[in-house]
Amino acid sequence: MVDVGMDAKAQSLIHHLLSQRHLKARIVLEKEQKSHLKTVIQQARSDILHERDEQRDEILSRQEQEMTALLDDALNLSPELLEKKQEELKRKHNKRVKSVRR
After folding, report:
1. What angle do CA 80, 81, 84 make, to 5 degrees?
2. What global pTM score does this model have?
3. How open is the CA angle 82-67-89, to the nearest 5 degrees?
């Protein structure tokens, strides 16, 4: 972009002004990118938390069904066996819930 008709001072001024404009444009672009990245990260975290909540709800529903089924069958089990099965279910349920927390 060297124009033979321009003197060095005018070329220097144009170069300086363009450099400033490019710097400002780069700063604005960086701010926009940081803001976009922050939004994307927040959305990803929200999605993960939502997914965990759904998984947890599914687990709790399944646990309720299993415990209800066990209690429905309680009359056919000895008290010792019922207690043993309840403890097994509790351990299984706790393990499931812990796996969702990770």
Report:
1. 90
2. 0.61
3. 65
> Residue 4 phi/psi, 5° resolution?
-60, -30
Distance of alpha carbon 72 from alpha carbon 80, whole angstroms: 16
The per-residue pLDDT for range 27-64, each reduced to its tens digit, is: 999 999 999 999 999 999 999 999 999 998 999 899 99
Q: How far is CA 43 from CA 30, 32, 53, 74, in A?
A: 20, 16, 15, 46
CA distance 99 to 62: 15
CB 95 within 8 A of CB 62: no
